[in-house]
Amino acid sequence: MRRLTQADLAAYDERGYALVEDVFPAAELESMNAEIDRLEAPAASDAPNRGWVMSLAQRSEKTRAFAQDERLLALIDEIVRPGIAIYSAKLTAKPPRSPEICHWHQDDAYYVQHSIARTRMSVWVPLQDATPENGCLWVVPGSHRAGLQEHAKRADGQCRLAMPERAVDVSKAIPVPMKAGAVLLFSALLWHSSQGNATDGKRRAFIVSYQDAATVGGNGAQWKVLRPAV
Predict the structure, then answer these.
(1) How many Å apart are CA 127 and CA 21, to the nearest integer?
(2) Does domain 6-214 match CATH 3.30.10.20?
(3) What is the distance in angstroms between the CA of the first residue and the CA of the last residue of the chain?
(4) Regarding predicted confidence, which is higher, 17 or 46?
(5) What is the predicted pLDDT for the residue at 46?
(6) Are 65 and 205 contacting, i.e. CB atoms less than 8 angstroms apart?
(7) What is the mean pLDDT of residues 8-26?
(8) Cα distances (Å, whole numbers) of residue 164 to 105, 106, 154, 194, 221
(9) Phi, psi values for residue 78, rounded to 5°
(10) Could you tell me the residue ranges of all domains in the chain?
(11) What is the residue-averaged pLDDT of the chain?
């Protein structure tokens, strides 16, 4: 069972994220893509969140097992303490040739509407290679240290509860391309966004957000304690 090294943990603390390669094999990703095909609800071709599946860990035994996979818990157990609970899980998607961007935001701007945790972070697992061309994440390293910022509703794009554009120095932003099956761990306070998908293929990411188990409650029925606080 792979775990973060001390160097990984130091990088996570400094930058707000850490990337771990080759966690899930291709056969498992193929099986999960087939499961998402089954779960994906029809949506209008111009829907901004077309292809997304919310409350994902509750949708099937296969997706529930993925959200609770010990390979993920082993990677985060030095970050999420005391104990580990699921806050929420979802599948985000960039359909082929989709121009929809996910605006700059911090996940905790959404999450604190439901509960406030001392520790909260996410794992982002691409089911296909994530590239700048198909909508990989962009991040501002170290931005998590500035705390929760102002957010406001937007009328366009994905991730519509967003930071004002004037607040983000995009010269400090970097892309985080990832191979399918890698895992990106990032703080709920990290500034991040994604561009549209300029390719003919889908770009899907299975995202699970975790928090310490001492915090009671998460995003409704999605909250589940996996390792009790000691």
Answers:
(1) 13
(2) no
(3) 22
(4) 17
(5) 64
(6) no
(7) 97
(8) 9, 12, 9, 15, 31
(9) -95, -5
(10) 6-214
(11) 95
